[in-house]
Amino acid sequence: MKLYTRGGDKGETSLIGGRVLKVHPHIQAMGLLDELNSHIGLALAHQTDDVLRAQLTKIQHDLFDLGSELMYTETPPKLVDLVIVTELETWIDELEPKCPELKRFILPGGSVAAASLHVARTVCRRVERELVNVDAASRQLPFYNRLSDYLFTAARYANVVAGVPDQEYARGADVFKTKKKKE
């Protein structure tokens, strides 16, 4: 089988239900998901922690599944069980206590592993902003919202693993409320 088909040479592509222009909102959304998945793949390549590697791999598969819902020109079937949102929350809850207490805004960066996760987080935020305009993706929005939170937490955890401190925003004040420990 040849990789190229020449079917898109005139600016169209196929969805389930017919051909559409490559600027169709579903095609635009799938392009954003592909970009996000690529950034997560790059972040995965920089990880040494087995927990993060397993989680990021699972997320890549989830993104493919979510993209499959956008392959329909009409109302898509609900192919993805959004229990994956709860899964992200569980992972955040497991990683967050392993990170230093968050008091100030932090700058994206630190280790290469963390910086790559921060880039994926910003792309995820763009995906979320753009998918607001795609009716077929509206039920998926909680996933992307939680995914960006996960990627932020994972980036902080990747810095812990690498032994590199988060870089706090120097001109900022303590903005996050801390929980007082019970004595």
Concise synopsis of the structure shown:
The protein has helices at residues 25-45, 50-68, 83-95, 112-131, 141-162; strands at residues 12-15, 18-21, 106-107, 167-168. Helix 1 (25-45) runs antiparallel to helix 4, helix 3 (83-95) packs parallel to helix 5 and helix 4 (112-131) packs antiparallel against helix 5 (141-162). It is mainly α and 183 residues long.
Overall geometry: elongated
Counting structural domains, the number is 1
Helix share of residues?
40-55%
CATH architecture: Up-down Bundle
Q: Distance N terminus to C terminus?
A: 68 Å
Rg computed from alpha carbons, rounded to a whole number of angstroms: 19 Å
Encode the helix/strand succession as letters. EEHHHEHHE
CATH superfamily: Cobalamin adenosyltransferase-like
Mean pLDDT over all positions? 89
Strand count:
4
Number of helices: 5
EC number: 2.5.1.17
Pathway: Cofactor biosynthesis; adenosylcobalamin biosynthesis; adenosylcobalamin from cob(II)yrinate a,c-diamide: step 2/7
Organism: Exiguobacterium alkaliphilum
GO molecular function, one term: corrinoid adenosyltransferase activity
